[in-house]
Amino acid sequence: GAVVSQHPSRVICKSGTSVKIECRSLDFQATTMFWYRQFPKQSLMLMATSNEGSKATYEQGVEKDKFLINHASLTLSTLTVTSAHPEDSSFYICSARRSGTKDEQFFGPGTRLTVL
Amino acid sequence: GQSLEQPSEVTAVEGAIVQINCTYQTSGFYGLSWYQQHDGGAPTFLSYNALDGLEETGRFSSFLSRSDSYGYLLLQELQMKDSASYFCAVRDGTGFQKLVFGTGTRLLVSP
């Protein structure tokens, strides 16, 4: 199956710093990638849709200036959490959809962010 | 918008059969998917129903009734490794085809 990677898998940072998370589709091109956030024992909440070569589309309630998304190529999207605070601590997961009959969406392994 | 409701938790024993239900409200419908997620891991795709009826994939089957806005995931011959969270999901009607997840069901399989 298709593979999506994320880096780093785990990051701990101090409050006020910025953290960049990379998401790569390893064996297919993805013009669109999605960023989700998941708090413990909760569902995945879509944050934004990342579009190659254009601005990201943010879900209602997600601050675009805080969560900067860049989709520089067909295989790479980055999420930067700016001026992170403890409430931003969460599991961040990216995904990419590969066109086909099964409507599969492939997910990265996630990044556990802890803000102290 | 979309909303998908699932039971929060289901428990069962090894070898049993369990059904996880999903009821949804969507503006437009583009199929129902199911994903499995182990603690700390990424969601993995299990199945997809675009039309009414049952789709079988090994021990897992998924059912859809579009008229009832309802679907379920059926897990047979349960194994300990099936203990995980299960999410139903639908795509919205926008050009980006965003995947929206249900509330999730935590399945606990005991010996």
Could you list some keywords that capture this structure?
heterodimer, A: 116 residues, mainly beta, seven-stranded mixed beta sheet, four-stranded antiparallel beta sheet, 0% helix, 52% strand, globular, B: 111 residues, six-stranded mixed beta sheet, five-stranded antiparallel beta sheet, 11 strands
Quick description:
The complex is a heterodimer of chains A (116) and B (111). Chain A is mainly beta and 116 residues long. Chain A contains no helices and 11 strands.
Structural class of chain B: mainly beta
> Residue share in helices of chain A?
under 10%
Number of helices of chain B: 0
Q: Which assembly state applies to the chains in this document?
A: heterodimer
List the helices and strands of chain A in order.
Answer: EEEEEEEEEEE
- Unreliable spans of chain A are none
- Termini separation of chain A: 37 Å
How far apart the termini of chain B lie comes to 40 Å
Radius of gyration of chain B: 14 Å
Mean pLDDT of chain A: 91
Estimate the global geometry of chain B from the Cα principal axes: globular
Helix and strand element order of chain B: EEEEEEEEEEE
Overall mean pLDDT of chain B stands at 92
For the largest beta-sheet of chain B, the strand count, sense and barrel status come to: 6 strands, mixed
Q: Mind describing the biggest β-sheet of chain A?
A: 7 strands, mixed
Q: Secondary-structure map with pairings?
A:
The complex is a heterodimer of chains A (116) and B (111).
Chain A: E1 4-7, E2 10-13, E3 19-25, E4 32-38, E5 45-51, E6 57-58, E7 67-73, E8 76-81, E9 90-97, E10 105-107, E11 111-115
Parallel strand pairs in A: 2-11
Antiparallel strand pairs in A: 1-3, 3-8, 4-5, 4-9, 5-6, 7-8, 9-10, 9-11
Chain B: E1 3-5, E2 9-13, E3 18-25, E4 32-37, E5 44-49, E6 53-57, E7 60-65, E8 70-75, E9 84-91, E10 99-101, E11 105-110
